[in-house]
Amino acid sequence: MNIFRFAGDMTHLISILVLLLKIYATKSCSGISLKTQELYALVFLTRYLDLFTGFISIYNTVMKLIFIASSLAIVWCMRVHPIVRRSYDKDLDTFRHYFLVAASFILALLLYEKFAFKEIFWAFSIYLEAIAILPQLVLLQRSGNVDNLTGHYVFFLGAYRALYILNWIYRYFTDIHFSRWIACVSGLVQTALYADFFYYYYISWRNNAKLKLPA
Amino acid sequence: GEMVGKHDEL
């Protein structure tokens, strides 16, 4: 474990806490893409298949449980909770995310570290996570003004993988056997997708203005 | 060292 990875995990955790805060405090999920949340739940469920068979550390197991439980809780809130589900922008959240799932699975069948059940699903979860934010970014552009908590949520979500890139660079130089090309390249793509969001987030912070993405 | 299949990252 290095400081970059720990900071990345904490940033990821903060993004989830900010989203839970938004939903709990405002009893609303306006501006949040249910499709992106469903994709994240799928990412965690397919990445942490070794949750009960493999053990790395208490920290690793606890964080996996938190990520799985929180992503499922958010999907439940947006689908089932009688008050929250009413504020879901169903007619704006129309990204066909099934294509993202199919593309990631096909790529995982072609590009993997080892042709084994868990490795294929691990690669699938890495590819899917890289593009899972797309429905959310499209929804932000369509819904015009973005409330603060939603903006912070997307910012921390993008920042966490950027910290992981620093972690991979660090491990590349310190861990001689380290080879994680699938996660590295995928992480770079994932972080690049946030580039324009980061720009508009910075502008809104600098001008102390409402976050606004161009349509 | 990092072995293939041992994913120690989240």
Low-confidence stretches of chain A: none
Q: Output the helix-strand order of chain A.
A: HHHHHHHHH
Overall helicity of chain A: 55-70%
CA-based gyration radius of chain A: 17 Å
Count of helical stretches of chain A: 9
Structural class of chain A: mainly alpha
- Provide the residue-averaged pLDDT of chain A: 96
First-last Cα distance of chain A? 41 Å
Structure description:
The complex is a heterodimer of chains A (215) and B (10). Chain A is an all-alpha fold. Chain A has one domain (3-207). Chain A is 70% helix and 0% strand. The longest helix of chain A is centred in the C-terminal third of the chain and has 27 residues, at 148-174. Chain A starts with a helix and ends in a 9-residue tail after the last helix. Chain B is largely without helices or strands and 10 residues long. Chain B contains no helices and no strands. The radius of gyration of chain B is 6 Å and the shape is flat. The model of chain B has no long low-confidence stretch (mean pLDDT 70). At the A-B interface, helix 1, helix 3, helix 5 and helix 7 of A face loops of B. Chain A: Keywords: Endoplasmic reticulum, ER-Golgi transport, Membrane, Protein transport, Receptor, Transmembrane, Transmembrane helix, Transport. Chain A: One of its GO terms (biological process) is protein transport. Chain A: It is a multi-pass membrane protein.
Furnish the topology, listing elements before pairings:
The complex is a heterodimer of chains A (215) and B (10).
Chain A (H helix, E strand, L loop, with lengths): L2 H24 L7 H14 L10 H22 L17 H14 L6 H15 L2 H9 L5 H27 L6 H13 L1 H12 L9
Chain B lengths: L10
GO biological process, one term (chain A): protein retention in ER lumen
GO molecular function (chain A): ER retention sequence binding
Membrane topology (chain A): Multi-pass membrane protein
